[in-house]
Design goal:
The protein is α/β, with parallel strands linked by helices and about 290 residues long. The chain folds into two domains: about 160 residues, Rossmann fold; about 70 residues, CBS-domain, CATH 3.10.580. The protein is built from 14 helices and ten strands. Strand 6 and strand 7 form a beta hairpin. Helix 3 packs across helix 4, helix 3 packs parallel to helix 5 and helix 4 packs across helix 5. The longest helix is centred in the middle third of the chain and has 18 residues. The chain is globular and about 65 Å long. The relative contact order is 0.08.
């Protein structure tokens, strides 16, 4: 939380530099800093930060109002953002009429309405119950498919980080101890701290079709059968239902629909047996023995 506030200088860094798109944020004067906060960086807070006397639409439009956006434009942008998060019919409601999950959606809409290329999210879902939390994670992933922003997402829940992140940075005592793709961090921890921190992550959610498929010549010349096609980034939990109904190896395709490999059913079965098998399949590309 301290680090993410150093990015937009809500907290002044005591040492070091922050760079954004080739510009040093830590060297900016107050006028330039205000401008970059308006146009480059938006933030979603953990505890919603909604004004109790403003309705949903006006809460979402508040940062735009502060930025000097005229009333008509900020209402249009606020309405569009609320539609994105599924609250288009709640624009006139007051914060005390909303559930916790809905309040966090309002907070997310407020960040989206700013339409900045970078979105800072400080433990946005940590105060929510597990069911609502997972729903919002799903919604965030779906939103990211359309808005394609750079998101810095702070969380103490590694399973959440693995679920929503493309890259994870693990910090200890104010220092980054490992950075990498989720599967790299979980399956190849840099030290004992990271190993202990990642030990409860569900490995079956880390193993992908690409990590256990056969890419040999024979595999790539297999005759296509649409009944047994899976995407290369499908995780083991998604492969199991397909494998249970299959009578031949699963065929793995990329997003363009091109065949990139096959998964023999016995290899899939081995990967399903235990976490140890999943690790072996992922790190070695061969079935565990």
């Amino acid at each position: 939380s301290t680090l993410v506030r150093c990015i937009n200088r809500l907290i002044e860094p005591s040492v070091g530099q922050v760079w954004l798109d080739g510009r040093e944020v830590t060297a900016m004067n107050q006028e330039d800093l205000r401008e970059i906060r308006r146009r480059e960086l938006a933030m979603v807070f953990q505890h919603f930060g909604l004004m109790p006397h403003r309705n949903v639409l006006d809460n979402v439009g508040l940062p735009l109002e502060v930025a000097g956006v005229d009333k008509q434009e900020r209402r249009e942008r606020a309405n569009s953002a609320l539609e994105l998060v599924g609250l288009g019919e709640w624009t006139g409601s007051m914060p005390n009429q909303l559930s916790g999950g809905m309040k966090q959606r309002v907070g997310l809409a407020r960040g989206l309405a700013m339409d900045t290329p970078v979105l800072l999210m400080d433990e946005p879902f940590s105060a929510l119950d597990p069911v609502i939390r997972r729903e919002l994670q799903d919604e965030l992933l779906a939103l990211q498919e359309s808005v394609q922003k750079t998101i810095v997402f702070i969380t103490h829940d590694l399973n959440e980080a693995v679920r929503v992140g493309d890259r994870i940075a693990i910090m200890r005592d104010g220092e980054v101890v490992q950075v990498g793709a989720p599967n790299d961090v979980v399956l190849n921890p840099a030290d004992s701290f990271v190993r202990e921190f990642t030990q409860d992550v569900r490995l079956h959610g880390m193993v992908t079709a690409a990590s256990i498929m056969d890419t040999g010549v024979e595999a790539l010349t297999a005759q296509a059968d649409d009944r047994y096609v899976v995407l290369e980034d499908a995780v083991l939990d998604e492969l199991v239902p397909a494998g249970l109904s299959a009578t031949q190896p699963l065929q793995v395709v990329n997003r363009a629909g091109v065949l990139v490999g096959v998964i023999p059913l016995e290899r899939l079965a081995r990967a399903m047996v235990s976490d140890e098998a999943a690790v072996a399949a992922t790190t070695e590309g061969e079935p565990a023995g």
